[in-house]
Structure formats: structure tokens, C-alpha cells
Amino acid sequence: MTQPSPQYSHGPSRLGVQVDAGRLWAGGVATAVVAAHIGVVGILVVRGVLDVYVLAPESKGAWESASALQYAGGALIGALLATALMHLLLTTTPRPLLFFGWIMALVAVIAGVWPFTTSADQDAKIATCVLNVVVVVAIWSLVAGSAQRSLTRTPTPYA
């Protein structure tokens, strides 16, 4: 006889695989802190050492230099949104890590290509692209790792 496929759940009532939401969100908060720090360090290196500006949207459509606080806040929010997305995928989709990987890969492409759609200097475009992609990849890997560690198998009865 075949064993039923696992179901993803955050509650104890389903058989298969359960999500430890506390562990997932603890990892998500830790990821947010790491992502924010990557943003601050990235801006310090790019602006302070390389004397290149990281781009940020200005309200009137022009581009200005991002502040470390703005960038860190954006990275922090991005990590928390990625954790919420992962939680949703874990509880609703059959292959949550695969879907999360595809979504994050597309976010990385968008974050990397976006600076080249502006009229900013080439060095600012490249610096922003690299920093954006580093932040997205860090969030991607840390949230995916936290998700894997938040899953527990529950006994599945054989029919």
C-alpha cells in the first residue's frame, strides 16, 4: 500500500508534516536583523569606501542616494514579507520550497535589473544592483533554511 502524501499544516490536527510557526518566525526575525545589517554595511562600503551612491526613489521621480536607515528598513521589511510568504506557502502548497525559490529568484532578478532602468550614473547602477541582489539572496537562503528547520514529520498511519 502507498503512504498518503504529507500535508503542510500549522496545527496539530493534520497528519504528515507540521510547521513550527514559532521557529519559522524566530528565523524570520533573525533574517530581518541580518538583512538590515547587510544593507547598512553595504551602504557604508559602497558610499564610504568606494564613494559611489546607492539609488533610492525620490518622490518627484528623480533618484537620490539611499540612506543607510532607509535601506536597512527596506531590507528588514523585505525579510519579514519573505517569511510571511514562506509561511503561506508551507501551509498551502505541495512544494513550498520550490515555489519560494522561484519567487525569490525572480525578486533577485527584478532587484538587480531595476537600477539599470534609471538614468543614474553607471557606477551607482552597478553598486545598487550588487547590493540589492546580495540582500535578496541572503533573505532567500536564511528564510528557506529556517523553513526547513521548522518542519516536523508527524506519524502517518498506513492504510
How many domain regions?
1
Uncertain runs with pLDDT below 50, 5 residues or more? 3-15
What is the strand arrangement across the widest sheet?
A: 1-2-5
Q: Could you spell the SSE succession in H and E letters?
A: EEHEEHHHE
- Global outline: elongated
Q: How large is the radius of gyration?
A: 19 Å
* Main β sheet profile: 3 strands, mixed
The helix count comes to: 4
What is the tally of beta strands?
Answer: 5
Q: Find the structural class using helix and strand composition.
A: mainly alpha
| N-C termini distance | 7 Å
Strand content: 5-15%
Task: Assign a percent range to the helix content.
Answer: 55-70%
Mean pLDDT: 86
Report on the structure:
- By secondary structure, the protein is mainly alpha-helical.
- It has one domain.
- The chain contains four helices and five strands; from the N terminus they run E-E-H-E-E-H-H-H-E.
- A hairpin with a 5-residue loop joins strand 3 and strand 4 (63-65).
- Helix 3 runs antiparallel to helix 4 (122-150).
